[in-house]
Design goal:
The complex is a heterodimer. Chain A is of the alpha/beta class. Chain A has helices at about 45-55, 95, 105-115, 120-130, 140, 150-165, 180-200, 210-215, 235-240, 245-250, 305-310; strands at about 1-15, 20-30, 35-40, 60-70, 70-75, 85-90, 170-175, 200-205, 220-225, 225-230. A six-stranded mixed β-sheet of chain A has the order 6-7-8-3-9-10, sandwiched between helices. In chain A, helix 3 (about 105-115) crosses helix 4 (about 120-130), helix 3 (about 105-115) packs parallel to helix 6 and helix 6 runs parallel beside helix 7. The radius of gyration of chain A is 21 Å and the shape is globular. Chain B contains nine helices and ten strands. By secondary structure, chain B is α/β, with parallel strands linked by helices. Chain B is globular. Chain B has helices at about 45-50, 80-85, 105-115, 120-130, 150-160, 180-195, 205-215, 230-235, 240-250, and strands at about 5-10, 20-30, 35-40, 60-65, 70, 85-90, 165-170, 200-205, 215-220, 225-230. A six-stranded mixed β-sheet of chain B has the order 6-7-8-3-9-10, sandwiched between helices. In chain B, strand 7 (about 165-170), helix 6 and strand 8 form a beta-alpha-beta unit. Classes of the chains: A alpha/beta, B alpha/beta. The interface of A and B includes residues 42, 247 and 269 of A.
Chain lengths: ~325, ~260
């Protein structure tokens, strides 16, 4: 059964002159054990989408859409699924852990909140989690504080906290961006192995194509608050169909691939919320743009949101 | 010998620190050469750049520029010619321009400090470098807040170019930028260095970017240089275990 379904997710923020649309109609499905990577540049709406799923946006945001978890409708805002249904890790573990609470307590906190576990059982469970994420499963470590740990270890603590209530879905928003390259690959490997051992679905929000290539099953490319291309990793990365995905992939230097002398660039910048009037939001930057693109907003058809790709079908 | 900059056995130690941040780093940069410094955070790559600008306490070794010693433990950085010819581009373009000065004032400030300012000539130069970095010369009267990150980084580069530098120190100049904008700035740096015989000391943690842009790579670990060589050699036949690890981690792009 499909684990998570989201239909027509729209998110807008209250601004000086009414609501500014930030996410403009996202449909998303997630199967058990699957890794979906959501890629996009800053401002594309990828982080806001994951915050909305967790119900972490405040009252300035208006979230609309239909959300189904294992076929049951739910309201993310109420937080009923938080912990055992959906859990989240963030980019900067230092600012998401409590700096004045020992790490052991931070892991047992969600366990005790459920009310099903006593202190002793929670502690045992926490030690088990520590060893699962590659941290020392010892009493002494239980009492260390975040500032005593390296970035990679903090992220491991964060992962242990997120896994405490055995979520079906783990949302990871740029989990490795703040880490050194060598540590990045350790954390990615850890996430991948935890996902397999727990049959957990993973939504990975990132701007790093190398990360996508390493862990994703499916990729959704986000631009100006919409998915512009969705598909299996191989097809999106190796034969992208949307001009934005094509341009994005060709603008990134790769270590193992021959690259042209000059990197392809995408002129201009992504539109700010509220700037999109009509037509395809990528049209002003697209090298294949045609007259029709400026007038008609394309739909997501067969995984691509582009009038030109549509015509080829 | 054809060299622009030579760093000899440089030690940096901050006051009160138990160990040196740089432990004897030696490096040369030839005119027009593009050298990358890679390494993890804390490896000392930014400290080396800061030391070259006179912003870190050098306790041993020396820096020689065009055959003249400009910096050592005893000698503070005073050489005006060096100060002019070595320019820096910072990581965070949002914080490297003065927010209350317009573009023109921002760009001309270093010229004034160096006594190179000439009202007629400098305005013309300003327009010229803006054109060179792909910005509208009309933007001189605008303020930093009116620009995007990529544009601000171009302005930072323009400001450095006005001094007619021979060496650009670029500390992670694209890591604060969006992917689609990164390519614009990398292309610009490559173009400028080729056109103007401008040497580049490019600090980065991304080997893929380095391989694209640079001729030579120096790998730093814990304040020491552990490996250096031509970019293809270091990326494809890394010798030092740390470099091997780095390359392996970046080849995560399985395939």
């Amino acid at each position: 059964m499909t684990l998570l379904e989201v239909h027509n997710l729209r998110i807008s923020f209250r601004g000086d002159s009414g609501f500014l649309p930030v996410v403009r109609g996202v449909d998303l499905t997630l199967e058990q054990g699957e890794t979906l990577a959501v890629v996009g540049e800053s401002g594309s709406g990828k982080s806001v989408t994951s915050l909305a799923l967790m119900g972490l946006l405040d009252s300035r945001a208006r979230v609309e859409g239909t959300f189904l978890f294992r076929g049951q409708e739910f309201q993310p805002r109420t937080g009923t699924l938080r912990g055992h249904g959906i859990s989240m890790i963030f980019q900067n573990p230092m600012s998401s852990l409590n700096p004045v609470m020992a790490v052991g307590k931070q892991v047992t906190e969600p366990l005790l909140l459920g009310g099903k576990m006593n202190r002793k059982a929670a502690k045992e469970q926490a030690l088990k989690l520590f060893s699962e994420v590659g941290l020392p499963a010892e009493e002494a470590f239980f009492h260390t504080y975040p500032h005593q740990l390296s970035g990679g270890m903090r992220q491991r603590v964060m992962i242990a906290v997120a896994l405490a209530c055995e979520p079906s879905i783990l949302l990871a928003d740029e989990p490795t961006t703040a880490l050194d390259v060598t540590v990045q690959s350790q954390i990615l490997k850890l996430l991948k192995s935890l996902q397999q051992s727990r049959r957990m679905a993973l939504i990975l929000v990132t701007h790093d194509m190398a990360v996508v290539e390493a862990v994703a099953d499916r990729v959704a490319v986000m631009y100006a608050g919409q998915f512009v291309e969705v598909g299996p990793r191989e097809s999106v990365l190796n034969s992208p169909r949307h001009p934005y995905t094509q341009a994005l992939l060709r603008s990134i230097p790769r270590l193992r691939r021959e690259v042209p002398e000059k990197l392809l660039t995408i002129a201009g910048r992504p539109p700010a919320p509220g700037e999109i009037l009509e037509g395809c939001p990528f049209a002003p930057r697209c090298r294949l743009v045609e007259e029709a693109c400026r007038e008609t907003s394309p739909e997501l058809i067969e995984g691509v949101r582009c009038l030109l790709a549509e015509r080829e079908l | 010998m054809n060299e622009l900059l030579r760093v000899e056995d440089l030690f940096v130690r901050y006051r009160g620190a138990a160990v040196s941040t740089l432990k004897g780093v030696s490096l040369t940069v030839a005119p027009g050469e593009r050298v990358a410094l890679v390494g993890e955070s804390g490896s000392g790559k930014s400290t080396l750049a800061r030391a070259l600008l006179g912003l870190a306490p050098v306790v041993g070794g020396r820096v020689v520029f065009q055959g003249r010693q400009v910096l050592s433990a005893e000698e503070k950085l005073q050489d005006r010619e060096y100060r002019r010819r070595v320019q820096m581009i910072f990581q965070d373009p949002y914080n490297s321009l003065h927010p209350r000065l317009n573009v023109k004032a921002n760009l001309l400030e270093p010229l004034k400090i160096h006594g190179l300012y000439n009202p007629m000539q400098s305005a013309a130069d300003c327009a010229q470098v803006l054109e060179k970095v792909g910005m509208d010369p009309q933007s001189v009267s605008r303020y930093p807040r009116q620009f995007s990150g990529g544009q601000l980084q171009r302005l930072g580069i323009a400001r450095a170019l006005l001094m007619k530098p021979l060496l650009l120190l670029a500390d992670e100049p694209v890591s604060a930028l969006d992917v689609s904008v990164q390519a614009q700035v990398l292309n610009l740096l490559a173009e400028l260095s080729a056109q103007a015989q401008l040497a580049l000391l490019f600090i980065s943690h991304d080997l893929a970017v380095v391989r694209h842009l640079c001729d030579r790579v120096a790998v730093m670990l814990k304040g020491e240089l552990v490996e250096s060589g031509p970019v293809e050699q270091v990326c494809f036949e890394p010798q030092h275990p740390y470099t091997q690890k780095l390359v392996l981690c970046q080849s995560l792009e399985f395939g």
